[in-house]
Design a protein that fits this description.
Six copies of one chain form a homohexamer. Chain A is of the alpha+beta class and 97 residues long. The first copy, chain A, has helices spanning 11-18, 39-52, 77-90; strands spanning 2-7, 31-36, 56-60, 70-75. Chains A, B, C, D, E, F: Its main location: other.
Chain lengths: 97, 97, 97, 97, 97, 97
C-alpha cells in the first residue's frame, strides 16, 4: 500500500481528483493524503481515516474503477497527517476472529 | 486471499460498499467482513459464508467487475467472525473428486 | 488453472453465477464445478467437460469478460466430479501436431 | 505464447468462440487451434496461419478486447495442425532489419 | 516511474496525446515530457510539475483510464526539463507525517 | 518493448489492425512493423518512426485502449525497416534534462 502527502495541492492536482471522485473543492484544502493499494486495503484505510479525524474521505476512480483506484483524504495539514499515521499503524494490526 | 474485519463500519465505508453491491444499509451493521481474491476463491467463500451463519453476503464490483471485486459479509460482530473463520478454514480443505 | 467443487451451492452462490452467465437455475443443482485460468485453458476445459458427461457448462463473465472469467459446470454430484477429473487429467496431455 | 488443439470441438466450445469473434459455424469444423499471447505475437501468428494453409483465422475478443484475446484457427485437422506448426516455428525466427 | 522527454513532438505524437487528454495543440510545443507510473505517483508528479514551472500539465487516458494513463507536460524545452528534474528529485523525498 | 516485422501482411492481419486503428488499407502495404510496450515507450517510438521515414504510423487499440495497445508502422519494406531500426536504437538513448 502506497501513501503520499501533498501539501497545498495545485489546481491541476485537484482537477485530477475532482474528475474521478465525489469531492468538490470550492477552495484548495491545506493538504491531500493519497492511499493506493488493493481494494480491500483501501476500504479498511477509508474506515480508519473517517474515524480518527475530521478529514473528508473519498474513493478516486475512473469509468472502470479497477487498478487506478485511490483513496483521497483532504483537510487541514495536521488532520490529514493524523489520518495517514493512523492508516499506516492500524493497517498493520492483525484482525482476530 | 485477503480477509479483513471492520468493526462498526463508518458511513464512508458503507458508501463504498453500497455503491458497488446490492447491499443497502438502513442502519450501520455491527461488523463487516471483506474477502478479496480470485473470482473462484470468492465464489467458494460466498458459499461458505452463506451456509454457516445468518450474515448477509454480497459481491462488490464496479462497472467492470474485474480485479477490484470483493466479497462483503455484514451482520453482528460474532456472526461475521464465524463466517470469516469458516472461510479461512474451509478454503484450505482440498476438494476430492 | 484453479478447480473448485461446491456441494449443493447456496442461493447467494447461484446468484453470482446466474448474473454473469447464461445459466438459469430453477432449482439448485446438486453440485457446481468452477474452473478459472487463462482463456485458452478454459476453452479447452469447456470442451472436455461437455464431451465427458451430461453436465451443463457455461462461461462466467462480467460486462468486461477479462480476468474474472470462470467456467461453471453444474449437474449431479457424480457427473460434475467426472467432468472435473477429466479436465484435470486431459489438460495435462501434450497436444501433438 | 500458448497453443492448443481441440479435435472436433463441441457445441459449447463453438459457442464461446462464436460469441467473441466473427466466425460463424454452420457445421462443426474438424479441428480448432487456439493461440493466446501478447497482441503483437497473435498478430504475427495470424499472419503465419493465413499464409500457410486454407484455414479460417479470427481474433477472439470480448467487449473489452484486452487480455482474454485469443486467435482461433478452424479447418480440417491436418490444415489446422500445419498452421499451428508454422506458428510455433516461425514465431521463433528473429526478424532482421 | 518512467520519465521521457520528446523534443519538438511530431504531429502523430501530438495526436496520440490530444485524443486522450484535455490538451489542445494549436502549434507544436517545443517539448513534451511524459511520466508513467502508478496513479498515486502521477498525481504527485502532476502537483510537482504544476508548481515548479509554467508548463501545461494534463493526465492522458483512454476510455478506461487504467494502466495506460500517463502525465503529459508541455512547454518550452527548458521549462519541461525543469519540471522533469523536479519530478525526479522530489518524488524520492520521503513524506513525514 | 517488443518489435516485430511482417512482410506483405495478409488480409486477415490487415483486418486486425484496421479494426483497431485509424489506418485504412486500399492496397496491402509492403511491410508492417509492430511495436508493443508501455504507453510511454510507444509514444516515444511513434515520434521516432514519424521523424525518420515516410511511413505511416498509428496506434492500435480496442474499445478499452489498455494493455493490447500496439503501434503499427506501414510502408515499403525498406522504410519500415529503417523506422524499426531507429526505434530500437533511439529508445535506448538516455534523455538528459
Amino acid at each position: 500500500m502506497d501513501i503520499k502527502l501533498i501539501k497545498a495541492p495545485s489546481p491541476a492536482t485537484l482537477d485530477i481528483i475532482q474528475n474521478r471522485s465525489k469531492l468538490k473543492f470550492d477552495k484548495s484544502p491545506g493538504a491531500m493524503g493519497l492511499v493506493q493499494g488493493k481494494m480491500i486495503e483501501m476500504t479498511v484505510a477509508c474506515d480508519i481515516a473517517y474515524k480518527t479525524s475530521g478529514v473528508e474521505v473519498s474513493d478516486v476512480r475512473g469509468s472502470c474503477p479497477q487498478n487506478m483506484v485511490m483513496l483521497a483524504i483532504v483537510g487541514d495539514m495536521e488532520e490529514v497527517k493524523v489520518a495517514l499515521r493512523n492508516i499506516e499503524e492500524k493497517s498493520k494490526e492483525k484482525d482476530i476472529w
